[in-house]
User: Which sequence fits this backbone?
């Protein structure tokens, strides 16, 4: 490896580390592969560099090329655990356009990415309430009454708490989904056995909707469309297994409580 005259090796290393950090942050925040590549390319253009990245679900191989001399530097890194945050994806995408328009230097890009990374997330109590309210709202949309909404709210909240606890104990993501589905379905199932509301089975159906893997499924089709076949397959299979775990959780409770909603 040779380095451009007057361009220290540490500068190239810092640039590729920054671009890899951006790439990893976008991936674990739920961006599709095309958006990751496009955003990183814009940041690199502002730095007068060209990245060539091979992105998989777990790792990234990036080669950074000096546009003038064609000298290269290659680094491999691991992607951290996925933690979906579309605000992060949107902020980084906007910052990448500003980096080109305003000709940001390395320090300006680094500062902006640090600010985005350290941006406060919504408090956990607000997330729990909002998602549980969404579950109750779905129950209303599908024809349930206010009693069904209350059951759906409590069932969703219970499932979310189970999901959070399992996450804190580092339980496998698919097992975590199954356990959350079981807990949410159990609470909703009690509502069916107690004949709460006009359509108690609606609460059972809507209480597990928060577990539906919309992000990986949508991203999988986006990746397929943009010829990122490997990532598309991984995301599709991950989404399919998650859906299977949700279904198994619901069926388990229906068998345990002897509930038949298909009568």
Assistant:
């Amino acid at each position: 490896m040779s380095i451009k005259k007057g361009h220290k090796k540490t500068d190239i290393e810092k640039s590729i580390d920054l671009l890899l950090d951006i790439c990893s942050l976008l991936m674990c925040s739920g961006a599709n592969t095309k958006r990751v590549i496009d955003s990183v390319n814009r940041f690199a253009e502002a730095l007068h560099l060209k990245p060539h990245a091979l992105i998989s679900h777990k790792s990234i191989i990036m080669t950074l090329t000096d546009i003038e001399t064609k000298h290269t530097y290659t680094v491999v890194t691991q992607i951290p655990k996925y933690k979906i945050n579309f605000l992060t994806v949107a902020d980084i995408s906007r910052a990448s356009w500003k980096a080109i328009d305003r000709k940001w230097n390395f320090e300006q890009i680094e500062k902006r990415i640090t600010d985005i990374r350290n941006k406060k997330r919504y408090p956990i109590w607000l997330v729990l309430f909002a998602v549980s309210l969404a579950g109750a709202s779905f129950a209303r949309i599908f024809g349930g009454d206010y009693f069904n909404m209350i059951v759906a709210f409590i069932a969703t909240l219970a499932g979310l708490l189970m999901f959070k606890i399992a996450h804190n104990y580092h339980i496998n993501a698919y097992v975590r989904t199954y356990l959350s589905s079981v807990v949410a379905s159990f609470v909703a199932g009690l509502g069916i056995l107690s004949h709460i509301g006009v359509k108690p089975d609606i609460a059972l159906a809507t209480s597990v909707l928060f577990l539906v893997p919309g992000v990986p499924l949508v991203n999988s089709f986006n990746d397929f469309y943009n010829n990122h076949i490997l990532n598309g397959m991984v995301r599709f299979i991950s989404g399919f297994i998650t859906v299977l775990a949700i279904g198994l959780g619901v069926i388990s409770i229906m068998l345990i409580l002897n509930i038949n909603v298909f009568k």
